[in-house]
Amino acid sequence: MSEILNYLKEHSNQITDTLLRLTKAESPSHTKALVDECGKILREEYERLVGDSVEMIEKTEVGNQLKFTYGTGGEEGQILVIGHMDTVWDEGALPIRHEGNLLYGPGVFDMKGGLTITLWALRALKETGAHLNRKITFLVTTDEEVGSTHSKDIILAEAEKSSVVFVPESSIGPDGAVKTERKGAAQFLMKIEGIAGHAGINAWDGASAIEELAHQILDLKKLANRDEGISVNVGVVNGGTRGNVIAKEAVAEIDVRITKKAQAEKISEAILNRPVFIKGTKVEVLGEIDRYPLERTEEVIHLYEDLKEIASAHGYVLNEGSSGGASDGNFTSGIGIPTIDGLGPLGDGAHTEQEHVDLSNLPYRAALMAEIIHRYANK
């Protein structure tokens, strides 16, 4: 399907223009008005380039979500592409600058580059007259960077109707490898209640919540296993009131990452059901597995091999890799839908001041997306 790549190369300047429009529309997760303005521009670009149906899913606490549909397909389900338009950057936090083939700016790599290549992949399929037996649903959410609380349900609902999921999140820099694995994530809140007392007068009568927390932290770290890819991080702690008072309360925020779904229940149970080390203290833990891992299954390997074959025909080698971070692709993989991630363009520096995309790579990544969509829409 070399005509798709040729078409996209011929329109490389216009692809850059789309990415610039989206990047200039800054969209911090917590600023609904700005996210909605970005959504308006994204919708305008879709209607201009593709023109099929658009559904807006209104939200009150975060930006409105958008569901684009291309084609009608048959009775064979749909192909799902999921992305997000919110970014980690506050308005005005980063300048937008163009240096040679590199475009720097807030969210340009994570993940407005991925939104751009998806728009142009659909445009290329349309303009080249590519036949599709399945419809394409392109779901763009607005709270991925803050946990996807308001979008998880619709992501799962659309995934259940889909035969495969493609996620144009940022690729693995610097060579643009796709993500065939992502760690799962869980967050827990530990609350400890002790017995207060005067640190000098009744030093032995109280029960320090802080001391109990210290024991808990050391014991929690025993659950980590580098070889199995399990990490446990106690990232925030707080407790006590004064230096001369035995601490009555202490709290800790715990982040857990896992590589296999089979690990999830075991480690969750171990964290939720804690032993008590200091007599007189009480320990309560709240939380759950938020996202199961995206595992490198046989189906994911097949997806990667197909992508690698397409890339080879385009003249380059496409590598694969894993990520310690989670994405919305974890949700779809977690319910058993074949999912591959990191399909966004070549770039680097996500969530840093050096966030950028290689503009010369945009036609190639859009062609990769278009051809993998075409292949799986006709299987």
Could you walk me through the main structural features you see in this protein, from its secondary elements to its overall organization?
This protein has 379 residues and is an alpha+beta fold. The chain is built from 10 helices and 18 strands. The chain has helices spanning 2-10, 12-24, 32-49, 108-127, 152-160, 209-221, 261-272, 298-313, 329-334, 362-377; strands at 54-57, 65-70, 78-84, 97-99, 102-104, 135-141, 162-166, 178-182, 184-193, 197-198, 231-239, 245-246, 249-258, 282-291, 320-323, 339-340, 347-348, 356-358. Strands 1-2-6-3-7-16 form a 6-stranded mixed beta sheet, sandwiched between helices. Strand 17 (347-348) and strand 18 form a beta hairpin. The two termini are 16 Å apart.
Ordered list of secondary-structure elements with their pairings:
Layout: H1 2-10, H2 12-24, H3 32-49, E1 54-57, E2 65-70, E3 78-84, E4 97-99, E5 102-104, H4 108-127, E6 135-141, H5 152-160, E7 162-166, E8 178-182, E9 184-193, E10 197-198, H6 209-221, E11 231-239, E12 245-246, E13 249-258, H7 261-272, E14 282-291, H8 298-313, E15 320-323, H9 329-334, E16 339-340, E17 347-348, E18 356-358, H10 362-377
Parallel strand pairs: 3-6, 3-7, 7-16, 8-15
Antiparallel strand pairs: 1-2, 2-6, 4-5, 5-18, 9-13, 9-14, 10-12, 11-13, 17-18
